[in-house]
Amino acid sequence: MTKVLDHGYIRHVESWGRGDAGVPEAGIIEAARQSTQGSFRGWAQDAKLLAYLFNSKPQHATPFEFAGMVIEVQAPILVFREWQRHRTQSYNEMSARYSPLPDLNYIPSVERLMGDAGSTNRQAQALTGTMPMTVERAEWFRAKLARTYAEAEDTYQQALAEGVAKELARCCIPVGRYSRMRASTSLRNWCAFLTLRNDPKAQWEIRQYAAALADIMRAEFPQVMQLFDAR
Amino acid sequence: MTKVLDHGYIRHVESWGRGDAGVPEAGIIEAARQSTQGSFRGWAQDAKLLAYLFNSKPQHATPFEFAGMVIEVQAPILVFREWQRHRTQSYNEMSARYSPLPDLNYIPSVERLMGDAGSTNRQAQALTGTMPMTVERAEWFRAKLARTYAEAEDTYQQALAEGVAKELARCCIPVGRYSRMRASTSLRNWCAFLTLRNDPKAQWEIRQYAAALADIMRAEFPQVMQLFDAR
Amino acid sequence: MTKVLDHGYIRHVESWGRGDAGVPEAGIIEAARQSTQGSFRGWAQDAKLLAYLFNSKPQHATPFEFAGMVIEVQAPILVFREWQRHRTQSYNEMSARYSPLPDLNYIPSVERLMGDAGSTNRQAQALTGTMPMTVERAEWFRAKLARTYAEAEDTYQQALAEGVAKELARCCIPVGRYSRMRASTSLRNWCAFLTLRNDPKAQWEIRQYAAALADIMRAEFPQVMQLFDAR
Amino acid sequence: MTKVLDHGYIRHVESWGRGDAGVPEAGIIEAARQSTQGSFRGWAQDAKLLAYLFNSKPQHATPFEFAGMVIEVQAPILVFREWQRHRTQSYNEMSARYSPLPDLNYIPSVERLMGDAGSTNRQAQALTGTMPMTVERAEWFRAKLARTYAEAEDTYQQALAEGVAKELARCCIPVGRYSRMRASTSLRNWCAFLTLRNDPKAQWEIRQYAAALADIMRAEFPQVMQLFDAR
Lengths: 231, 231, 231, 231
Known about the structure:
alpha+beta, Gyrase A, domain 2
C-alpha cells in the first residue's frame, strides 16, 4: 500500500497476463505470437518482440490488453471525478447512498498551495488580478477549509441522526471528502491513464496517484514499464 | 428546455438517425435492412421491422446505434456522479479547474424529504433506529443545508479572492452544487440509460432527469419510444 | 482443451478475479463490498451477496467486471466473423498477411446438414422452394465443398510459390477455413457472450463454441455459473 | 459515392455535430465551451479553440466525440475483417445467413500485384526465396483467382439450389468476395481509424477506403480535417 496525499492510498490487489509461461509479461507475448505465428524473423527473444510491439508507430496495442491489474484507491471525490472519466476501466466505489462516508477530507499542504506544484496549466491557477500566494494566506486557507469541512460533517451527522435519508443527507459533503474504490483494466489502458494523468497539465493531486500507480506497475510488469519509461 | 429539480434542466441539442429518408427512425431501419437485405418476408412496413428488432429476445440492438442524440444537462454533482458511470456516453462538463462554478445548490423539497419519493431501495433510506421524518425536521434540514451551502460558498469566494488556485479552492464545494454538461450517445445507449435510471431503485433525483429525457426522446424518436414504453 | 467441430478447439489460458482471498469469485465479492461497505444487512454469506447482485433487476453488473478469463480458440473464419462483433473483448488472431494459414477447413456433418440443428432461425435456413435435405444430397455437398476447399488451397499455394504477396494470395481463402485467436474479457462480458451465442437463434456452429466456453466457465467460476445456469 | 477497388464503394449517409449554430463543427466547439466556460482568454475565434483542442498534447479529445458520421461501404470480406477490429464503431453488415451474397469478387490489378503498392510492411509481402513478380505471373494469378472465384460461386449456387441452409452454403465463399455494411462513429474515432488505416503499414486495399473516407470527411468537417492533415 502506497500512501498518497494526506489520507489517501493506492494498493495492488491482483494482476493477470502471466499466460502459460507464468512470467509477468508472458500473456502479452503469447497473444502477440498468436497474430504473427513466428513470421517475424529475428525475434529470438521475447524482449525484442515486446519492444517492437510497444514502440512501433502506430503501436501494436492489442497484445497489451492481455495483461491487466486490479487496484484499490482512496482519494478525494474531486480526484475520482477526473479518474472516472476514463471509460475503459471498471469501477466499484463505496456509495454514500448506502453507507455514511467516513470523515476524511483533503487539505492541501502549504507547499502545494504556494507553488501550484509546477503545473503548466495556466487555466487551473488563481484568478487573474489576485496577489501571489504567501505562507500566511496558505495557512489561512487550510484553517478555513478545515472549518468548512467540520461544519459540513456536523450537518451530515445531524441529518443522519434526524432520520434524513442517507442519499439526501450527503448533499452537503464537499468534493474534498475522501471516497474509496476498486478499479480494473488492461495494461494498455493503465498506460493510457498514466499518459494522461502523469502529464504536467493534469491536476497535481491526480498526478500523485498516477505516480504511485506507475510504481506498482513497475513492480508488476517490469519489462513493459521499462519501455513506457523510455518513451 | 425542461426544468428539473430546483435549479436544473435538460435540453435537446441535436439528433441524428434520419438516414436517407429523412424521417426520425429512417437511419435505424436502413441500417437493419443492410443486414437483412429484404430477406425477412412480410415486413412490408417499417413499423413491423422496427418492432421485430426491438422486441426480439435477445434484441437486435445494433440498428439502434444508428440514431442518437446530444443533450445539455444542469444537475447536482451527486447526480452527475451517477450519470457518468455510464461509459458508453460522451461527456463535456464545465470544469471548476478552469472557471468558478455558479452558486446554485440543490435543496430537496419537504415532500421529497418526507416520502423517500417512493423509492424501493431500502439501503438508501434513513439509518436504522431513527424516527420517521416530520415536516418540522424536513424544514430544519432544508434550512441547515442552505446555511452549509452558504458557508461553503463563502469559503470558496474568499479563497478565490485570496489567490488560491481555482483547482484547489473548489475542495469545499458540496456535491449538492449544480454543474452543467453536454452528453451524447446512440439511441441504444439512451434506452439503456433509461432502463437503469428510470428504475424505482435508482435515486429519485436522477429519475427526474431520466423522465425528462424520456419525454425528449418521445418527441425525437416516437416510434422507438412507443416500443420502449410498451415493454 | 475441448475439441469443437471437425478441427476446432477452445482452451483456457488464464483467469483472474481471485482477489485477496484467492478463491474463484473473491474479486467479485470484494469489489461489490467496496460499494456497499457492509450496509446490506443479512448478507452474512458471500453466496447470498453474489446471488443478490446477479439476480437483481436491473442486475448489479459491475462487480462481475472484476473477474475474467483469457482463452484460445480455433474456429472457422465465419465463426470468427460473428464472434468478433462483440466489441468488449480483446482479440489477437493469426494473420494471413503475415503467415500462410494452415489447410484446415470446416465440413458440416451429414447430421448437421439434415437437421438445421434445431435452429429456430428461419431466415438462416434453405431458400424457399427447395426440397428437404436428404442424406445423399448432404453427402454430395460435403464432397463438393471438399473439392472447392482443395481448389482454393491449390490456388493459394501456387500463388505463394509464384511470389504473390501473402496479403493478396489469401483472397481465395474460403470463410470455412480455420483460423486461431486469443480472446480476453471480463466475466460480465463472457456471460453476455453466452446469452447471445448460446441462443437458439444463433448459428449452430458458434453455439458449439459457446457451449464449450460455458463448461470452462463452470470450472473456473462455479458459483457465478450456477447462478447463470439457473436463470 | 466514391468508387474504391474494382467493385467497392464508400458513400456518405449522414453527419451530426452541427450543434445549435448549424455549421459543420459547431457541436464540437459548443461541447468544448461547456468545459471551459470561456475561461481560455484570447480564443475570440472558434478556429483558434478548435486548433488548440486538436493540437494540444495530450489532445483534448472528448469534444471531437460531439460530431460524427454514418457511411455505407462495399468492400471485400478481408477488408471488413480488418475494419471491424475497430471496436468503437457501430456496424450493420449484410449477412450471408439471411440472404445469398451477390457474386462480386476482388481481383487485384497487375500494378498492385507488381509493386506491393509501396507498403513498408515486409511481413505482408511475398514468401522469402520467391522470385520478383512479373507482369506475366501477375496476369496468371488474376486468371487463376478468377477461376477459383467462379468455382466457389458454382458450389455456392448449386448448394443453395439443392436446399443446403444459407448459413452453411456460404462456407465456400472466399474472403475476396464483396460484402456491404453501414458504419457509424464519432469524429474522434473516425480520425483514429484514419491514423491506423491510412498508414503505410496498413494493407493497401484498406488504405484505399481510408483515403476515400478522408475525402468525405474533408467535405463534411473541413476545419477539423485541415488540422488533421496538417499534423
